Amino acid sequence: AKVAGCREIVVCTPCGKDGSVNPGLLHAAKVAGATEVYRVGGAHAIAAMAHGTKTIEPVQKIFGPGNAYVVAAKRLLVGHVSIDLLPGPSEVLVLADEIANPAFAAADILAQAEHGSGHERCWLVSSSARVLKAVGREIEKQLPERSRADYIRKVLKHNGWLIQVKSRAEGIALANRLAPEHCEVMIKDPRSAAKEIVTAGALFLGNTSPTVTGDYVAGPSHTLPTGGAGASFPGLTVDMFQRRTSVVEYTPAALRKSIEAIEQFAGVEGLDAHGRSASIRLD
After folding, report:
1. How is the chain split into domains, by residue range?
2. Do residues 178 and 87 lie in contact, with contact meaning Cβ atoms separated by under 8 Å?
3. Is 92 in a helix, a strand, or coil?
4. Separation CA 63–CA 239 (nearest Å)
5. Do domains 10-83 and 91-238 have the same CATH topology?
6. Are 83 and 120 in contact (CB under 8 A)?
7. What CATH number has the domain spanning 91-238?
């Protein structure tokens, strides 16, 4: 928003029980150019920004990720305000073959599951039963070491899948069908596979490109489509914070040159007033 030149940048965030906001978050908001920060989160924050309250003025665009309720609220407001996309609970799909490091794949799955809403989704897709079993063992090994193990278990119980496919091509096809937020490509020649995966929010190639690099330091947008929306929406980009207005100015000579085409279109549509609104200027 700052790079796009927005004059007013509003941030809404939940606060702690004592009313405080994480100082790291406040600093990040300041660096990003926020002009206002409100201690409110969830679907009610979306409603407040869209419709306005006594303390929060209505905005024109509402961007950013949230839980399932935030996504539902944003979906209801499409058309009332500008909505970036529908980034909801986090997702990761790891596409792996024999070159994948099982410990790395397991660690990345645990990382996405630790958000803890229970709605996160984690897939491991491989044509190798050995890889699937090895990653499963690594998950069991690493899970007790994680501080948010209880949250992770809940996610993996309901939305964690180890999927065996027949071939690399079938794995890529499944990735495109699921359109995951994050897609890690731990297979031979990952760059070639990346050209075939066309619906993921972001691709992470090879064994040393964990999803967390995109979360914190890599540079591409961290606000990405989830729930299959990647088939229709890209990640958040600077141009989404801008709006465009067309400006049309014809000279008499230019209008005269175009009048035949205008009248032809008007005739086809049966809208003679349309045609006359141009020809009257040439009488």
Report:
1. 10-83, 91-238, 252-282
2. no
3. strand
4. 12
5. yes
6. no
7. 3.40.50.1980
Q: pTM of the full predicted structure?
A: 0.85
d(CA 273, CA 263): 10
Three-state DSSP state, 156 = helix
Residue 179 and residue 200 in contact, taking contact as beta carbons nearer than 8 Å: yes
Q: What are the catalytic residues?
A: 181-182
Please give the span between the terminal C-alpha atoms of the chain, in angstroms, as a whole number.
Answer: 48
pLDDT tens sequence across 34-80: 999 999 999 999 999 999 999 999 999 999 988 889 989 999 999 99
Interior CA angle at 36 toward 70 and 243, to 5°? 70
**From 1.10.3720.10, 3.40.50.10750, 3.40.50.300, 3.40.50.1980, which CATH number describes the 10-83 domain?**
3.40.50.1980
Q: Are 85 and 233 in contact (CB under 8 A)?
A: yes
Averaged over 120-143, what is the pLDDT?
A: 97
Q: Report the SS3 class of residue 47.
A: helix
Question: Helix, strand, coil % (nearest 5) of the chain?
Answer: 45, 15, 40
